[in-house]
Design goal:
The chain is an alpha/beta fold. It has three domains: 220 residues, Tetratricopeptide repeat domain (Serine Threonine Protein Phosphatase 5, Tetratricopeptide repeat), CATH 1.25.40; 80 residues; 157 residues, Rossmann fold, CATH 3.40.50.2000. Helices cover 50% and strands 10% of the residues. It is built from 25 helices and eleven strands. It has a seven-stranded mixed beta sheet, with helices on both faces. β6, α22 and β7 form a beta-alpha-beta unit.
Length: 555
């Protein structure tokens, strides 16, 4: 762009002031007038794109950026703004290309580095984000946005101490930053410092009362205290500020599910597909929304963990009763077990392409679609056929399986798992035989000394059908919140589940039974700092009584 006249520069400044004041319609008209006189006025066109974006005129914004780039392919501002537009549209690959082009033109542009770093975080490329944002802090150590973004990269990589240090660095530069305060609060929550988390979120709201993110984060921490009514107030306040807040809707759904309000909870829970940490749904057949299924082929697909698939496959017989042919698209390790599940015509590994089908539904949508309430949960007595297994002797001792840890990659694993050593007090109970059902790295905790007391029952298991055969030879399973709990409940085997103070939504609050599984008993931590010892001591007491009763009966 060449030099512009003083009159045009003055007119541009007046329009920019309108733009900054939020009068986007007037600003758009002004930029368009300038561009009629000078189509090569790139600054005006760049701002036109931003104003169009602010008013929801996304196609016009895209056209503005494309016009600039057609004339100047290395225009850093156009690439940056186009990258932001693509990111808003979920076009992550295209956004990255534009950010990289912007950085090629301006290698040390801090705002571009920050947004590209945030894109890397959104796509799970945490080490790339850390390197880029650490470089940005070296070039702009006084920029709080850079420290905040680097902190988020650390937090997502579970480097909580480093994250908290970076958030505090951002706040030292700008103590009024509500965003940095609430982010620090989320970091404290993840490390179990709940009181400190509440203080940080409150600090954020004191500085910016209309911050929807801070209200949502405060609600999440209140749920950790099991203060559900207060959390719902926080989520509703967030939604009054931003009715489209995915985080507030999702977490409000979780809170309703914790109270047993399944219909409202699953209705809000639908918003999960808009979350960046949930893979987008691929294109395919229409989604089933409750219409007639007679003569239709319905594809049910798993969307989360093994336990979720096991819990919600219970709906297949009800769909079959409505006339559907039900095909299950699920994890490879569940295929052999669920091939014979009631209502399932075929189970196919989800890495394989599904067969042709008329409709599809995610498993966790079925409670909503079937209008499930606590009183209408189907097949709570068990719904999976028990595989053939070698029957133990009739006069044998009580046979108990134990699981002490879930997958370490689970976001709440530090809360839900315990150490094998914490279960040692169960090993000397008279009249029981203990069997390990532990998989993964945690199984290595079973050393030679422990193996003399606890037999590894799953060393030869290759999938859930093999594990089911083992479970069906047991009288009781004692486990933390893992897929084995769902497997036992689905098979109708007695199972005792150890729960952290703030449990997963499906276990609700303040009850020791589960409406999802009648053979299940829940053992809960009484407060966030209690740990597992009181829970396991209660289990020891109850297990001793059960062993006495069992052994008296088989004498």
């Amino acid at each position: 762009m060449g030099a512009i006249s003083d009159d045009r520069a003055e007119a541009f400044s007046r329009i920019v002031e309108l733009h900054r004041a939020g009068d986007h319609v007037a600003a758009i008209a002004g930029y368009q007038q300038l561009l009629e006189d000078d189509p090569g006025f790139h600054d005006a066109r760049l701002n036109l794109g931003a104003a169009c974006l602010a008013t929801g005129r996304h196609d016009e914004a895209e056209a503005a950026y494309r016009t600039i780039l057609a004339a100047d392919p290395k225009h850093a501002g156009a690439h940056y703004n186009f990258g932001n537009l693509c990111r808003d549209w979920g076009q992550q690959k295209q956004a990255e290309q534009h950010y990289l082009a912007a950085l090629h033109a301006e290698p040390l542009n801090i705002r571009t580095m920050v947004n590209l770093g945030q894109l890397f975080i959104d796509t799970g490329r945490l080490e790339e984000a850390r390197r880029l944002l650490a470089k940005a802090t070296r070039h702009a150590p006084g920029n709080p946005a850079v420290w905040n973004a680097l902190a988020i990269a650390h937090m997502n990589a579970d480097r909580l101490s480093a994250a908290a240090s970076c958030f505090r660095r951002a706040l030292a530069i700008n103590p009024a930053s509500a965003g940095a305060w609430t982010n620090l609060g989320s970091c404290y929550r993840m490390s179990g410092q709940l009181d400190e988390a509440v203080t940080c979120h409150s600090n954020a709201l004191a500085r910016q009362p209309e911050n929807a993110k801070a209200w949502t984060n405060l609600g999440v921490t209140q749920v950790d205290f099991n203060a559900i009514d207060t959390a719902l107030e926080s989520y509703n306040r967030a939604l009054s500020i931003n009715p489209k807040s995915t985080a507030a809707l999702f977490n409000r759904g979780i809170a309703h599910l914790l109270t047993g309000n399944l219909r409202q909870g699953f209705d809000d829970y639908r918003v999960r597909w808009q979350r960046p940490d949930i893979p987008a749904l691929p294109d395919g057949a229409p989604f089933w929304e409750g219409e007639d299924l007679k003569g239709r082929r319905l594809l049910l697909f798993s969307e989360q963990g093994f336990g979720d698939t096991l819990q919600f496959v219970r709906y297949a017989p009800l769909l079959r009763a409505r006339g559907a042919e039900v095909i299950l698209h699920c994890q490879q390790a569940l295929v052999r077990l669920l091939t014979t599940a009631p209502g399932i015509s075929a189970a196919i590994p989800r890495n394989d392409p599904p067969p042709p089908h008329d409709l599809r539904a995610a498993l966790l949508e079925l409670p909503r679609l079937m209008e499930t309430s606590l009183d209408s949960i189907p097949f709570a007595d068990g719904y999976l056929p028990r595989p053939a297994a070698v029957a133990p002797p009739a006069d044998r001792r009580l046979r108990v399986g134990i699981v002490w840890a879930g997958s370490p990659s689970h976001k709440n694993d530090s809360r839900r798992s315990c150490k094998l050593t914490e279960m040692f007090c169960l090993f000397d109970i008279p009249g029981i035989d203990l069997f390990s059902l532990q998989f993964g790295k945690a199984a290595g905790a079973l050393g030679s000394a422990e193996q003399a007391l606890v037999r590894n029952a799953v060393s030869g298991c290759t999938d859930f059908l093999d594990t089911a055969k083992v479970v069906c030879n047991l009288d009781l399973v004692i486990t933390v919140d893992t897929s084995v709990a769902h497997l036992a409940g689905a098979l109708g085997i007695r199972v005792w589940v150890m729960l952290p103070h703030a449990p997963d939504w499906r276990w609700m609050l303040e009850r020791n039974d589960s409406p999802w599984y009648r053979t299940m008993r829940l053992y809960r931590q009484a407060n966030p700092t209690e740990g597992w010892e009181p829970v396991i001591q209660q289990i020891r007491h109850d297990l001793s009584g059960l062993a006495d009763s069992h052994n008296a009966a088989v004498r």
